[in-house]
Amino acid sequence: MIQLNNISFSFKKGEPLFNDLNWSLQPGKTYGLLGLNGAGKTSLFNIISGMLFPSDGACTFDGNVVRNRNPQFLSELFIVPEQFELPAMSGDQYTQLHAPFYPRFDEQLMERSLSELQVNSKKKISELSFGQQKKFLLSFALATRTKLLLLDEPTNGMDIPSKSQFRKLQASLNQPDRCTVISTHQVRDLGSMIDHVTILKDGKIIFNHSLDEIFEHLSFIKTESDQPDKFIYSEEVLGGLHTIQPFKDGAGNEFDLELLFNGVIQQPEQINKQFNGGE
Ligand SMILES: Nc1ncnc2c1ncn2[C@@H]1O[C@H](COP(=O)(O)OP(=O)(O)OP(=O)(O)O)[C@@H](O)[C@H]1O
Question: 2-202 falls under which CATH superfamily?
Fold first, then answer.
């Protein structure tokens, strides 16, 4: 669906942000795009949505170059940016005005999302708090039913019950034609929402695997051992170590996205080796 081929991009001459980056995104999947501050997550979203132009390589959506921003592509893309400004009109007016751009806009889903996230669409959006505005925009985003949905730090600004309500809502939707990418560094919020982990560092994608592949090749085990060098990666926790190990059948294996993220950032080669037969 989305294909990034050999993308290079810099804001400043001589300081590449992306260097020969490749990534392929498929329908029906939810990708977690993770990276440290400044890794380039937002910039990559801007390249995918055709708002930033790579200096080399191309990004295509169903075979069409996204930088052309043709109307058919724009009607299949919705992006919720980290920062946004919504107009001084009620939520209902906003929906009435913007829904016609999206051919499969789902009004029932919009109503359900607003009700589950407890957003009042009769009020002027610009007078809602930031968290309420975000919940409004996320409700609209889900309801557009676009083929591509980009969410930049979607849970920033949301209270704890809303975060969990949003996760439930997203998980309850059957979206076989939609590709969702969620960018965040709030790894804990994301674990149950994604089925693919992509990690960006130093201008490249350094880890790109589905959860199924991860469960096949790695185990996440708490142990009382005090020998960190026995494991691929470990962090000290109360009473021992939280470790990443080559896959082991048996009890005690509990996926931890934050541990995986930290492990990949610090030991990318050792972790990736497990996916190539451990050699
Ligand atoms: N308009 C711009 N002009 C110059 N440099 C920029 C611009 N926008 C972003 N950058 C730089 O590009 C790098 C990547 O920024 P980006 O916002 O894409 O990262 P991010 O991974 O989304 O970060 P965060 O997690 O902090 O939101 C940063 O070093 C940033 O300073």
Answer: P-loop containing nucleotide triphosphate hydrolases (3.40.50.300)
